[in-house]
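Issue 218. Parser rejects a valid record. Input:
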Amino acid sequence: MTPIFTRALFCAALIAFSFSATAQCDPEGYDFGEVGFGLTPDGITTFFADGMQGEDYEQIMYLLVPTNATQVDPTLPDLPIDSIQIMAVNLLSAAELDTIPLDVAGLSVSCNNSGLCADDCTYLAGSQGCATLFGVPDTGGAFFISIDLLIWSTIFGLPLSAPQSFSGLELAIGAIDNVSEQHLDFDGLGQIFPVPAQDVFTVELKTPCDITVTDGLGRLVDVRSRATGRTTFDVSTWPAGVYIVRAQDQGMMATRRISVQH
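Output the parser choked on:
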């Protein structure tokens, strides 16, 4: 176990990246269950909410910090972790593959580690923290988010760090001037529109398919069996957020994320 004074040194010294001090989140606001390490949204079972250009946006990210580096990556040295530090949150345009600074995109990040470190974006081993991505997006489009971390440990009393990154997380920002015109291709099975949806969305299929809709936590919301042609979903009473639409025929399955915004 790393001595407490060493951890205090890390917490006091590792103030290398400054995020916004507003939009505080609750570090204990997500239950990771029995896992020892985790990030949510993870892009697999939980997703970033879609946003709208010119409108307020907020998405909370939760980080559960392990006690050993091998819990993060089996290829890392078998060493106890002192802390994990968020170094940067990057936005990448999916179309041009250009990196866009968060402030240029109208977004900021605020971290909360329950006051365990002077640097709000440094989280002690065995603790849980959060960070909020928020702001008013300036640009519409499809983006990828990557989160750059430094994993800190000590060996022979000396600090040792290893970089780690979560990448490929998707974020869609609807453009104000063409919300109703956006259609989402459904991997050759058809298309979904409008995206984002406000009161209804339509799945237009080329072949009969079974359609399932789940929310961002994987809970089943709606099912349509052997749907064909145009199938409309009334989302006027659904909570705003991200939903996963899956269509499957006998030989193909397509999955798409859509946003419901009221």
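Fixed in the parser; the record now loads. Residues 182-260 form a domain with the Immunoglobulin-like fold (CATH 2.60.40.3080).
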